[in-house]
Specification:
By secondary structure, the protein is α/β, with parallel strands linked by helices. The protein has a domain of about 220 residues: 3-Layer(aba) Sandwich (Rossmann fold), CATH 3.40.50. A seven-stranded parallel β-sheet has the order 3-2-1-4-5-6-10, sandwiched between helices. A three-stranded mixed β-sheet has the order 7-9-11. β5, α4 and β6 form a beta-alpha-beta unit.
């Protein structure tokens, strides 16, 4: 079972973020000696209580990555630019694709024993009939909607190419929609939960997604490090829910009435275009064209492979929602 005893170190990227901070806590509890890659001036509130060495660096600075990886036995790569809409797609590609490739190159040069790369279900195919997709569902680059999803797909393909061509000892995990504590930004999924809990979502569209507790995603990373097969992908999700049903769960947990208005997608296009135009002046878009393109398909996934091979056992989605609302309330992001 991989740990990092006797002074051996595990490098973790993205620990200041939502998923990464949960992974850091999980690995620390397993006895890993952690080195955390952090950007200069980054918000480090999520590192409170985590005993670790900090290595200042940036995915866009390969020299800093080589220094961070030096002497490490394992690398767990969680850092990513996660936004549905960005004014400059090139910056996201630089961080998520070029940065991932540079980190993997550094891991190879340092002789790292094992790597866990955090990808996303965004990099996978979808069942055209609305059923559950898995790691083998066909996907093409042309079918990927939005710069974030394209960047995660390209980064995953880069990792797999290094596994095939240069023997990179990497295992890939594909989290679904994580929710739970310490979502400080918050993430797009977390913002939806917070807005619904605050009564700011009066309507919904006919779509669906897979919701999972962030601590279960963190456990999945650790299990992949311990038991995953090199070159394999593992979906880390929990329950597939229609958006209508998810918003009803949020309303029940928050003590509110659920939204009753079902909206067709087509009339929302002018609003999405206007939201993106306003975003160029610093107003975060409530809905974008990529949101609407994604809403056309149900993003349902199966975690059966991770359950079978890793022993992954996620809790029900309702518990994830409950913990998320409790944290957002404690943080003052949702009224009590």
């Amino acid at each position: 079972m991989p740990t990092s005893p006797n002074g051996e170190t595990t490098l973790l990227t993205g620990a200041t973020g939502f998923v990464g901070s949960a992974v850091a806590r999980n690995l620390a509890a397993r006895g890993h000696r952690l080195r955390l890659l952090v950007r200069a001036g980054s918000d480090q509130r999520n590192l409170t209580g985590i005993e670790a060495e900090l290595a200042e660096g940036d995915l866009r600075e390969p020299r800093s990555l080589a220094a961070a990886v030096a002497g490490c036995r394992y690398v767990v790569h969680v850092a990513a630019d996660y936004r549905i809409w960005v004014p400059d797609p090139g910056a996201m590609i630089a961080a998520n694709v070029a940065g991932t490739t540079a980190l993997m190159e550094a891991a190879l040069a340092a002789g790292v024993e094992r790597v866990v790369h955090c990808s996303s279900v965004a990099a996978l195919g979808l069942d055209p009939n609305g059923g559950e997709a898995d790691e083998n569902t066909r996907v093409t680059a042309e079918a990927i909607v939005g710069v974030y999803k394209r960047s995660k797909y390209q980064a995953e393909q880069a990792v797999l190419r290094l596994v095939r061509e240069r023997g990179l000892p990497a295992v890939i995990v594909n989290p679904a929609g994580p929710v739970g504590p310490r979502d400080i930004k918050p993430t797009p999924t977390g913002r939806m939960i917070a807005d619904a809990a605050a009564g700011r979502i009066p309507a919904y569209v006919d779509t669906g997604l897979n919701i999972v507790h962030v601590d279960d995603v963190a456990e999945g990373h650790a299990l992949a490090l311990e038991r995953g097969r090199i070159g394999e992908r593992y979906i880390l999700g929990s329950e597939n829910l229609l958006l209508r049903d998810l918003l009803s769960i949020v309303a029940e947990e928050a003590g509110r009435k659920p939204p009753r208005i079902a909206l067709p997608v087509a009339p929302l296009w002018p609003f999405a275009i206007a939201s993106e135009l306003l975003a160029r002046f610093g107003v975060e878009p409530m809905v974008t064209r990529d949101h609407l393109r994604m809403a056309r398909k149900k993003m349902f996934f199966s975690s059966a492979k991770a359950m079978r091979e890793l022993g992954y056992a996620p809790r029900p989605a309702r518990l994830a929602v409950r913990d998320a609302i409790a944290w957002f309330r404690a943080a003052g992001m949702v009224p009590a």
